[in-house]
Amino acid sequence: MKISRNAASVSPSVTMAVTARAKQLQAQGVDVVSFGAGEPDFDTPSFITEAAVKYLHAGRTKYLPASGDLGLRKEIARKLKDDNGLSYEPNQIVVACGAKHAVYMGIHAVVDPGDEVLIPTPYWVSYPEMVKLVGGVPVIVETKPENEYKLTPEILKAAITPKTAMLIFNSPSNPGGFSYTAAEMKALGEVLKGTKVVILSDEIYEELVYGDMEFRSFASVCPELYDQTLTVNGLSKAYSMTGWRVGYIAAPKDAAKAIDDMQGHMTSGPATFCQLASVDALQKGQEEIAKMHAEFAKRAAHICKRLNAIEGVTCAEPTGAFYAFPDVSATYEKLGVKDSVEFCNKLLEEAGVACVPGGGFGCDRNIRLSFATSMELIDKGIDRIEKFISGKK
Ligand SMILES: Cc1ncc(COP(=O)(O)O)c(C=O)c1O
Question: What is the pLDDT of residue 393?
Answer without folding.
Answer: 67
